[in-house]
Amino acid sequence: MCEATRHKPDAPANDTAPSSPAPLAHSPESDPLQQNVQFLKGVGPARADLLRRLGIETIADLLFHFPRSYEDLTDVRAIANLSADSLQTVHGEVVEITGRQLADGRCIVGVVLSDGLHCLEGIWFNRPYAARPFRFGQRLAFSGKPKWHRDHWQMTSPRVQVLDGPLETGTSAVVPIYPLTEDLRADHLRAILRQAVDRYRSHLTDILPAELRKRHCFAGVQQAMQQVHFPASLADAQASRRRFVYEEFLVLQLALALRRRELRDRQRAPALGVSRAIDMRIRRLFPFRLTADQDRAVGEICRDLAGERPMQRLLQADVGAGKTAVAIYAMLVTVANQHQAILMAPTEVLARQHWQTVEGCLSQSRVRRLLLTGALTPSQRRSALDAIRRGDVDLVVGTQALIQENVQFARLGLVVIDEQHKFGVNQRARVRRLGIDPHYLVMTATPIPRTVALTVFGDLDVSTIRQLPPGRQPVVTRSIPASRRGWVYEQLRQGLREGRQAYVVCPLVATSETFDGKAAEQTYAELREGPLSDFRIGLLHGQLDEPTKERVMEKFRVGQLDVLVCTTIVEVGVDVPNATLLVVEHAERFGLSQLHQLRGRISRGTVAGQCFLFAAPGSEEAKERLRLLTRISDGFVLAEQDARLRGLGELFGTRQHGLGEFRFGSLLADYEVLQLARQDAFALVAADAGLRQPEHALLRQAVLEKYGQTLELAEIG
After folding, report:
1. Are 297 and 445 part of one and the same domain?
2. SS (H, E, C) 571-593
3. 165: which DSSP letter?
4. Rounded CA gap, 414 and 260, in Å?
5. Rounded Cα distance, 499 and 52, in Å
6. Does residue 376 lie in a domain region?
7. Given CB 3.0 to 4.6 Å as the disulfide criterion, which of 108, 297, 609, 658 pairs with 580?
8. Do 507 and 482 fall within a single domain?
């Protein structure tokens, strides 16, 4: 195709310029942004139904339906300078339009552009009507990824823009790509958005103070709205999107800063000091020395407890790093200061595990302690509640039964909640009603990605324990195909004969129509009758009643069972140092952090654990999870990788914490913006505690509307 042949189509198409938007019917006088999109020109009832599928009902919804990405068509090249497989744009004149049938029955339409020296062919497969919009002599821009074909360049299904000169006014070199729904075309949505942006962006009010906009070089909201949807350059689009992401994060971080201020500055907690004598007395109760990381966490907690502001601290630790010992230290400081302390766990199994740990440490102490769970009889519960109310109990371990309204404490000084992410953010308020502003310690053995620490736990100070106690051996982790199941069972039998114990973890209790793999009940029966028939096997899952669960777990703990077939009920907190063998069935169904937690069950003693993962990963993501787990033992590194692979919604789900979904920002992709917003938010609240200054009024209103009820911020209103 050295010299292009000229061929005219049978039916040339006419170019039509977009018409100006028509006036809207029934526009509300009070807030035009709440006008229904149905009354925009070109929408109507049918297209309004399509927009509703995207969550778009009002003009405001439409304006804030942001592009998910952009195509940058600014790399405009002469055809002679093209390179393969990167997005480029060519300007030229239509010199040939062809249609032909291929040998395999497909049809192909070709449109050839010439820039005066060379030619490029745009091709469309199985779209016989693709030629209709083109006409001979038309000036066009083709954008796509070119490939060299025989003796010329080709682009398959290029993006086409009509030119009347270098680049027609109103034709963008940066094309927004929107989330769509079936039957809603991208060009139709862009036309609707053009109307909305042109006509209604002037009604947008900027909640960002001028000082913040100037400091960060942010455009005003009206200009930013224009640039998000119809940017002149990719840099403009990215800068404007960043401005809206920052605003969204700022509102959240202001809510967290205000919540923290409410708890810190307006409330009084008992000052619980630690003398040298108290410290020595507490340390003598532990049968081990605290690690350097534990000592540092203890120091941070003690500084908080000694103040008159309620401690608000997150204690996060890697699996087996000893967070419970630090929590016990804090509770004993509380008791030494004649106040009560509670330790609350999300499940009966975990509560009883904590109780065993507490009992082990305090067996030689005079601390009055009590286990309060839902398994108590009515008379036992009444007796326990009376003792707590009278102050005859110093330390209470329990489940959510501790935050029921009929539980009253005499002098509650410290609340410790384990695995806070399993409770949900709204329960913090219920805990606060247990006493007069107690100190508050959240702890988790699930290492938390940095972004989650700044959002779900963003109102808390953070202490981190990464260092494992001396003598702990690493766990050898293997991903095993089903064909080697016999070898794995032989490894189990060998370990069990040496006196070790094993967990066999299944994703579900029983098989069902949607899952016919190895479930706990089926696996329990198969192992008892088959490869592990010579050993004592127990079954533990969440559907058993509490006395049965307690009985099974206790038998395993004291060595009366060799193998525990279970679900993820043992994921956190279960501490049986003699259990050094773990088999996970259908490991591809578990997340990376969850698998790391399960692996932590066999890293409690001085014998190296062995973890066998049976998996049939069907996706690259699942394969990558298993590869990472076999290579990395650091839970904090794995947490960041899990967030990268699965997204934070899968891990901690901001929705379940009452924080809702982020509309513009991505906690992973926009971490730097999140940090910036947090820094500014906490500085703002430090300077203007109630956001009472006039320039902060709109920010204050936005915070209360979004998070006032969820985070109990109504008092600042």
Report:
1. yes
2. CCCCCCCCEEEEEECCHHHCCHH
3. S
4. 17
5. 63
6. yes
7. 609
8. yes
Tell whether 226 is covered by a domain: no
Q: Kindly report which listed range (66-80, 170-184, 352-366, 559-573) carries the lowest average pLDDT score.
A: 170-184
Is residue 168 pLDDT above 50, yes or no? no
Q: Which of 465, 486, 506 is the last residue of a domain?
A: 465
Distance (Å, whole) CA 234 – CA 390: 67
Structure-block tokens of residue 586: 């259908």
Task: State the residue range of the domain holding 136.
Answer: 71-177
Token reading at 259: 């919540």
Q: Identify the weakest region by mean pLDDT among 458-467, 485-494, 653-662.
A: 653-662
What are the helix and strand counts (H, E) for the chain?
A: 22, 22
CATH code of the domain containing 522 = 3.40.50.300
Answer yes or no: are the C-beta atoms of 327 and 358 closer than 8 Å. no
Query: Could you tell me if 514 and 393 lie in one domain?
Result: no
Q: Are residues 131 and 112 in the same domain?
A: yes
Give which of 567, 563, 594 is closest to 578, Cα–Cα.
563
Q: What is the pLDDT of residues 522-543, one digit of tens each?
A: 999 999 999 999 999 999 988 8
Half-sphere exposure of 472 (CA within 13 A, CB side): 20
Which of 177, 209, 231 is a domain's end point? 177
What are the beta bridge partners of residue 178?
none
Q: Using alpha carbons, select from 334, 532, 313 the residue that is nearest to residue 443.
A: 313
Rounded to the nearest 10 degrees, what angle do helices 323-336 and 348-362 cross at? 60
For residue 553, being part of any structural domain is answered with yes
Angle at alpha carbon of residue 258, lines to 680 and 697, rounded to 5°: 75
Is 678's pLDDT higher than 90?
yes
Cα separation of the two ends of the chain: 73
Same domain as 420, residue 284:
yes
C-alpha to C-alpha distance for 711 and 717, rounded to whole angstroms = 13
Dump pLDDT digits (tens) for 397-409.
998 767 666 788 9
410, 341: one domain: yes
Per DSSP (E only), the strands in 506-644 are 537-540, 563-566, 579-584, 610-614
**Coil, strand or helix at 106:** coil
Task: Provide the number of structural domains found in the chain.
Answer: 3
pTM (two decimals): 0.70
pLDDT at 173: 76
Same domain, 486 and 440: no
In a domain, 664, yes or no: no
One domain, residues 441 and 336: yes
